[in-house]
Amino acid sequence: MALTNPMPMGPWKLTVYDQENFQGKRVEFTSACQNIMECGMDTARSLKVECGAWVGYEHSSFCGQQFILERGDYPRWESWSGSNAYHIERLMSFRPICSANHKESKITVFERENFIGHQWEITDDYPSLNAMGWSCNEIGSMQVQSGAWVCYQYPGYRGYQYIMECDHHGGEYKHYREWGSHAQTFQVQSLRRVQQ
Amino acid sequence: MALTNPMPMGPWKLTVYDQENFQGKRVEFTSACQNIMECGMDTARSLKVECGAWVGYEHSSFCGQQFILERGDYPRWESWSGSNAYHIERLMSFRPICSANHKESKITVFERENFIGHQWEITDDYPSLNAMGWSCNEIGSMQVQSGAWVCYQYPGYRGYQYIMECDHHGGEYKHYREWGSHAQTFQVQSLRRVQQ
Question: Does Nucleotide-binding show up as a keyword for this record (chains A, B) (predicted)?
């Protein structure tokens, strides 16, 4: 069963299964899905990203926890989830990350909200911001100049994930409230480019 | 309480707590700890890496699941664990990763065991090997020319972790049985440099 976008925006393909380990009913997507229940499935419990980078969400309409999905196989929730304390066993909406550009990504991070305080322009992946001289465990605000980024609560790309894109919010994320509906603190300890 | 290494090998510092959220008894390490129970603690449930990159292990004597620990705060097991299906709530041994070198790291991955088949020399971080043209979800063997690397079971740096170092095994990892005592398959879908 294929739900083909009549006007595809890019080379994206995601196959979703309603059971773990690529079992059960399956649906293919080549563009955003706002609510998987409107596509003939109750839930997404495993998935294969065949083309492009995607973001999956806990709830419909792109709300709740965000999960970066790059090319490869995701047989169970543990393969996408970063927060085990509050784990999400299924995904309800998805969309392609159109601005992902592994080679040319740039983000400026600021010590405080509203682009104030000490700042740092980043073009590479940093599993520990702390190790590279960022003195605290928080980022106050961010400006994405190009590409798309994933920020993580903990070092080593763990914990809550926040997808930051140059073509969303004009690339400006002034306060953690703009990072996503699940963000509750400024805590960010690692960050990396999204791979297309 | 500080357990200072009489002959420190590098600028490493790790503080371990026996309760979550940096509570309870604490011990500082500046070099490897083979068994935390011999250092006056029963368990490690939270930790702060203040200097250098470390690897933490599920069991004593550097056995069982491996967890990369770079600079930053790790308040609970979820902040270091990548496999939620088989989660490890405490760590029992630690050691510094002496060869970590974020700027100059090189690894060659091979399609099949014993350094056979299609090969690829890697010097950058890859959240999805698949996306970069590696055609399967497995790596047969690896040779670390410089630096230290973390390989992960799933894309996006999730799932089981395997630390690969140029100064261990002569940098040669011929078969998954040499990746660590917890390795059970050749499955590797993402890989990155360890940051010092």
Answer: no
Chosen from A101, A136, A158 to mutate, greatest number of chain B CBs within 10 A: A158
Give the burial string for B50-65 (b: 16+ CB within 10 Å, else e): bebbbbbbbebebebb
Chain A residues with CB under 8 Å of a chain B CB are: 49, 53, 68-74, 76-85, 87, 125-132, 137, 150, 153-159, 189-190, 192, 194-196
Query: Residues of B with CB below 8 A from A87's CB?
Result: 84
H helices of chain B, in order, are none
**ipTM here:** 0.77
Interchain contact, B156 vs A157, CB within 8 Å:
yes
Dihedral sign (CA B52, B49, B167, B61): positive
The pTM score is 0.84
For residue B190, give the chain A residue with the closest CA: A72
